[in-house]
Amino acid sequence: MDSCTTLKGFRHEAYACFLRSADALWNAVDALMSTPQATSFAELSQSLWFERKWPSLYKAFVRGRIDEGRLRSIFVRYLKPPKPGSWVWIGIDASSIARAEAATSADRTAQHVPNLPECKKPVTFGWQFSTVVALPSVPSSWTYILDQRRVDSQTTAIEVAYEQLASLVPQLGAKAIVLLDRGYDATWLWCRCSGLQAGVLGRLKSNRCLYREAPPPTGKRGAPRKDGDKLQPKDTSTHGHPDGVFSGTDTKGRPVQVTFWKHMHVKAARWLQLTVVRVVRPHASNKERDPRSSWFVWIGDQEADVVQIALGYVLRFGQEHGYRFDKQALLWEQARLRTPEQFERWSQVVAIVHNQLVLARGLVQPQLRPWENRERQPTPQQIRRGMDKLLRTLGTPACAPQPRGKSKGRQKGERVKKAERFAVIRKRPKLPHLVPL
């Protein structure tokens, strides 16, 4: 099946997931994909591919319905399979959509604001979304979205991440490695993920305590030791003798050293076998975002090549580039929709556009500005600039709008009430108790 046929099939199957206001929602998909000059949500209605008036853009997200479960299955089915013997690298992270002044929006929670200069309270209020992506072989914004869900106030990003992985991993049909940031350093998640048919490589916090296997019984009175010697990343006196050391270069030819300790565990789950890995990069700037020494935990096959797996963690930064493209180019956080359900529909539209650009990568001639580097691989935004020509060939599964006459408007004497106000939810729920699988 060629790329054009694949893209057509994806478009028609994704359109079938729109259960209500399907035509207006799909017009929004095509408008967002082919109008790179739009700087706001409302400007999408000025696109030639949005065949309706601008109020229909907002009504589509108010009245529309999307079968998200079916859409997730379509995303997985159209994922390009890896080369034989290779892994599918999966990234998962949570991103905040700030709505600090939106008092009429329900279920807003306190959200940490990253990458700010030093300040006392880097906190805002809004919604949080957990996104699972297939990562490209080179860190870039060419990620492929597999699932995108909102983290409501009754749950946590860690719980939502496990739900997403539990539903996606069985559908992949290939060996997968999940890369987790330091925010997912949670024993509960490690235990749950150990039952999945995928390996997990996660960043460790510097104060995390792990333990070696317990020594044999001494024969003395009293209960035998349940844990061996401690290993804590920030305490060099606890590192002891590793099980292996590798010195070499990374994919860019820069020196790197990998040290690992096998058969480790945590007190809360002694049955869970872990491998602790330290990666030292002498060329790093040793700042918070570029540390010289990084610590990881590997949950999976204890006989796997942990050195190559640890060096592959650099692919996770492609998810950050994908987030930047969605927010800056695809206007993900620009849409001022009132309810979280409306914004969830908008998030699915953004994901559909993002994945279509990935599938159309070999079908469109990238449109470069005079100052853009022609020696680099094209970016999704450069492909997006040429999507208008491709859409004329592909056509649209949406039906043309039908005239319905002039609206009667409100009844005489009808009073419009003020929109309901909602307080910010500041308390976050805790993870459930740890239960061995």
Annotation keywords:
alpha+beta, globular, Transposase Inhibitor Protein From Tn5, Chain A, domain 1, 2 domains, 14 strands, IS701-like_DDE_dom, 437 residues, Transposase IS701-like DDE domain-containing protein
Produce a short descriptive summary.
This protein has 437 residues and is an alpha+beta fold. Helices cover 27% and strands 21% of the residues. The longest helix is centred in the last third of the chain and has 20 residues, at 340-359.
Just give the CATH class of the largest domain: Alpha Beta
How would a textbook summarize the main sheet? Answer: 10 strands, mixed
What fraction of the residues are assigned to beta strands by DSSP?
Answer: 15-25%
Distinct helical segment count: 11
What proportion of the residues is helical, as a percent range?
A: 25-40%
Rg over CA atoms, rounded to whole Å, is 25 Å
Structural class: alpha+beta
- Multimerization state: single chain
Distance between the termini: 42 Å
Shape designation: globular
Going by CATH, the homologous superfamily of the largest domain would be Transposase Inhibitor Protein From Tn5, Chain A, domain 1
CATH architecture of the largest domain: Alpha-Beta Complex
Number of strands: 14
Low-confidence stretches: none
Mean pLDDT: 91
> How many separate structural domains?
2
Pfam families: DDE_5 (PF13546)
Region (Disordered): 212-251, 395-420
InterPro entries: IS701-like_DDE_dom, RNaseH-like_sf
Protein name: Transposase IS701-like DDE domain-containing protein
